[in-house]
Each structure stands twice: as structure tokens, then as C-alpha cells.
Q: What sequence folds into this?
């Protein structure tokens, strides 16, 4: 008679690249991206399920925001970039899950302004 208890799955990456190493992989010369990329932000940690994870934010060379008018062709380009990022990291030997997100120049500027306002508020609230 077999007794099946609760199985515990542990995910352990074979190689753990540091944020700066991942950035270096993405910035390697010669990579042709599906759309013009002007920058990257990388963060490593654990996702909501406590799995080791890499988050990559791709800064696109456009001032347009994504909206319902964005063409399928543009979304397809983003999907190609997402696959390229994941493949490049996987080829390095790091098998963590990679979340790829996109920001436009306009979106990045908006985020920077929000962060600046938040920092200003916090400095005003700090005790003298």
C-alpha cells in the first residue's frame, strides 16, 4: 500500500547572476532587438510564490504611451523582445523565471516625476 504525502517542490537555480551581470548580458553589442531599446532596469529577488525571480524592465525609444490604439505589430515586437531577453538569460545558465516589462520614455518620465514627488513629500514629513 502506498501513502502519498504532500510533496514539496524546491526550485533552485543552477547559476545565480547578479543584477549587474544580467545588465551586461542585455547590453552586449551586436544584439538586434525587435524594437529600439534605450535602457534596462534589472532586479532580482523572489516572486509572490517565493521562487527566485528576475524582473527586467525594458525602456523603449518612444514617447508614446501604450494604449488601445497600439497595433498588433507593436505588441508582436514586444513579445519578440520578451523572448530574446529570456533566451539570453537562459543561455547564461541562470534558470530563474524572468518577468519582462516595458516602459516608454513617456512612462519612464512619469515614473521619475512620481518618485521625485514622493521623495519631496517624505523629506517634508521627516522630523527636523
A:
Amino acid at each position: 500500500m502506498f501513502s502519498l504525502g504532500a510533496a514539496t517542490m524546491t526550485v533552485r537555480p543552477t547559476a545565480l547572476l547578479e543584477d549587474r551581470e544580467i545588465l551586461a548580458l542585455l547590453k552586449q553589442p551586436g544584439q538586434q532587438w525587435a524594437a529600439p531599446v534605450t535602457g534596462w532596469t534589472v532586479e532580482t529577488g523572489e516572486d509572490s510564490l517565493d521562487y527566485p525571480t528576475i524582473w527586467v524592465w525594458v525602456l523603449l525609444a518612444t514617447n508614446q504611451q501604450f494604449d488601445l490604439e497600439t497595433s498588433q505589430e507593436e505588441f508582436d515586437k514586444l513579445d519578440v523582445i520578451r523572448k530574446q531577453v529570456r533566451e539570453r538569460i537562459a543561455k547564461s545558465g541562470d534558470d530563474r523565471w524572468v518577468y519582462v516589462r516595458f516602459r516608454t520614455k513617456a512612462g519612464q518620465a512619469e515614473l521619475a516625476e512620481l518618485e521625485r514627488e514622493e521623495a519631496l513629500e517624505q523629506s517634508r514629513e521627516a522630523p527636523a
